[in-house]
Amino acid sequence: MPNPLDPLDMLRSARETSAKVQELITKATLPPAQRKALVEGVSRLVLPGEQLQALIDLADAFGPPEAQIAEIQKTLSAQREQLEQMLEDLDRVEAGVERLAQATEQIATLQAPFRKLLEGMQRNDNG
């Protein structure tokens, strides 16, 4: 059983706790940069003289996610541009299909008299 007053036992216990925390952190679904900062910060928290700087670094790593938000905004802007381009392409295709439908109707209208004529000729040949 570790002696709570022995500095070496305290250090060993702190390192064991740090290792367990690091293991839990690696299983967490944090972004890689934050996961790395958390693992390093927890490791440094057990080192004498490093605690204050480790706390400051951890606070910086988990402060307002300005960089992540800026990246999301950039991604959304790029996706919006892609969608706008896709809408323009869709409008062009839709207009082409509409013109094709109109041309098909015109062809059918032009063919109607010839079809009647051919049907009449066919009836006369069969009859």
Overview of the structural elements:
The mean pLDDT is 78. With 127 residues, the chain is mainly α. The longest helix is centred in the C-terminal third of the chain and has 61 residues. The protein has two domains: 65 residues, no CATH class; 49 residues. 84% of the residues lie in helices and 0% in strands.
Summarize the structure.
By secondary structure, the protein is mainly α. It has helices at 7-27, 32-45, 51-61, 66-126.
Quantity of strands, as a count: 0
Sheet with most strands: none
- Count of DSSP-assigned helices: 4
Q: What overall form do the CA principal axes indicate?
A: rod-shaped
SSE pattern, N- to C-terminal: HHHH
Assembly status: single chain
Structural class, by secondary structure, is: mainly alpha
Query: Distance between termini?
Result: 114 Å
Evaluate the radius of gyration: 37 Å
Mean pLDDT rating: 78
Beta-strand share of residues? under 5%
Runs in which pLDDT lies below 50 for 5 or more consecutive residues are: none
Helix content: over 70%
How many domains in all? 2
